[in-house]
## 1
Amino acid sequence: MAEVKICGLSEERHVAAAVDAGARFLGFVFFPRSPRAVTATQAAALTAEVPVGVARVGLFVDPSDDLLREVLDHAALDVIQLHGYESAARVAEVKALTGLPVMKAVGLSGPADLPQLMDYGVAADMLLVDAKPPAGADLPGGNGLAFDWRLLVGRHWLRPWMLAGGLTPDNVAEAVRLTGAPVVDVSSGVERAPGVKDVALIRAFVEAARS
Ligand SMILES: O=C(O)c1ccccc1NCC(=O)[C@H](O)[C@H](O)COP(=O)(O)O
């Protein structure tokens, strides 16, 4: 059984569906190129009614200090997710600037990428273990691509972590069984088109992950 983060939420009915289904983390994307992007003002409305116990995660890609301040001036966030090329030093700066826990995403495509999880494990509060985006990809995440989960078998890091990348209602139970992930993160796998979430898929995913 794993807890769930539903990422890339941009409509109130999908926030409500994720909360009702039992998701413990909700992700909001502040990266304009993404089909899931929300503005600071939209995020203010989307995050306002989220109950205590459900964490609101703001996803940023190499954000400037100004962007972080602008979003936090409007929207109530509980965690900052960094999904770009941020260094460990930048992770520490963002933590100090925002006063919030920071989750650093690390993309894996093979064993050579694993040491990054140790490196970031000092500065970050949480780790998001994701698939490395393919060369030339438009987005650094949210591509619906899985990596070889066997890379994670028997491994431990300094921080709590989540598994992401190509998870769906059909494969999430096997991913949790193989990796022991305590939390799973999904975006494309609960969409019927890029950026368009689906209530039935959200429910099916949470049920499969928590079963
Ligand atoms: O979702 C996006 O559009 C996005 C844009 C820029 C950086 C990251 C992005 N998404 C990351 C995620 O949604 C998840 O943390 C994770 O990568 C899972 O995505 P998916 O494989 O689509 O389930």
## 2
Amino acid sequence: MKTGISLEEAQTLLLDLVEPAKECLVPLTRAVGRVLSQDIWSDINLPPFDKSPLDGYALQANDTIEVSSSHPVILDVIEEVRAGYTSLKQVTSGTAIKVLTGAPIPNGADVVIKFEDVNRKGNKLELFYPLKSGSNIICAGEDVGQGEIVAKKGTLLNPPLVGLLAAVGVDLVPLFSKLKIGIISTGDELIDPSDDLRSGKIYNSNFYSLSAYCSKLGAEAVSMGIVPDEKDAIVERISKALEDTDLVITTGGVSVGDYDIVPTALDHIGAETIFWKIDMKPGSPAIAAKYKNKLVIGLSGNPAAAFITFDLIVGPIIKRMMGFFQELPPRITATLADDFNKSSGQRRFLRGRLDNINGINYAKLTGKQSNGVLKSMVDCNILIDVPAGSGPLIVGQEVLAVVIDNY
Ligand SMILES: Nc1nc2c(c(=O)[nH]1)N[C@H]1C(S)=C(S)[C@@H](COP(=O)(O)OP(=O)(O)OC[C@H]3O[C@@H](n4cnc5c(N)ncnc54)[C@H](O)[C@@H]3O)O[C@H]1N2
Ligand code: MOO
């Protein structure tokens, strides 16, 4: 078992142990927020045919070469085509076919002119200026060509991509299976927000923040309930979660106190501890263990510590298991916009907000930084990475930060 390891070593150890979930085919209506398990190629051109972008007339540009307002050309209108139909006739020199928006361009035509720009009298059409071949025609395959890649394996399906897949005729999408993540909240002090607050008790916020995070990532959070600080109860609940879910997260009970019994419970189950304690604050007491082919990650009970370690360690594992391209959060440099008066013996992550003003990245602290404070997490979009051994931080100094996404 490793102990006191760096965050990067913890991330690598865990990412090496997990792989993308199984594949499944999912109807398009339920695919948003999930990840493609295969490249998607288009079997068709999108649009499938040359079409008209407006209501007008399709004709041959050659017929308009010498045309002017004083010398208009007169063409015969021989047919009308609406969207959803194809023309039966062909445009030849001296003729035009009326086309409505979205209608296929009739054979023989190479330009479309809109209604407002012509004079129509009976079946005769008067044009007053020369037209350029190809104008006002949406070409087949303009959006996506036949045989072109539409989206790559590992892409997150956002609403426009869902639409694009529909547009190329995909109705069942190959996706990585939805992950089930069991969340266990340990602590005698915890009660659910639906209950009355009693003396010495606090509301369980970790289950709610972390399950919301799982949902945001497209995974299914399974509540494994609140468990008292008793070894047998924790053993029973972790064992159940290992049976029912793909990844197990616990909060609380991982430090060195008399009632911090998650590590003992993991031992009792026969799980192999991968590491216990990471060299960072907050979140240092985190533990990771493997049982058969599943992972249990025990996070600190302190709400901000639990959330930050979820951001930095659990989020990347979930992303790898869900098949995302990029698991680890990006890093940036920024100029500090606030002082931070404490020294940092240990590596420390501060909750901050990145603002770009006139092309310069500024990192502002979002509020109190103690490990139990959740409010400063709400507006946080970066975690400022303060190296071990740093003194107080001063406005204007350059800092490194990890970009996170709480939305
Ligand atoms: N002697 C030492 N004591 C502590 C150390 C240490 O090194 N030596 N480390 C401290 C640090 S750092 C942390 S972090 C905590 C970690 O403690 P645990 O992970 O064992 O967590 P708990 O003690 O169970 O809870 C900590 C704190 O968070 C509250 N909590 C717990 N669960 C929830 C929840 N689901 N929702 C909201 N709040 C929760 C809990 O009531 C405690 O206040 O240990 C330090 N101690
Ligand atoms: O490591 Mo504790 O998680 O500072 O907050």
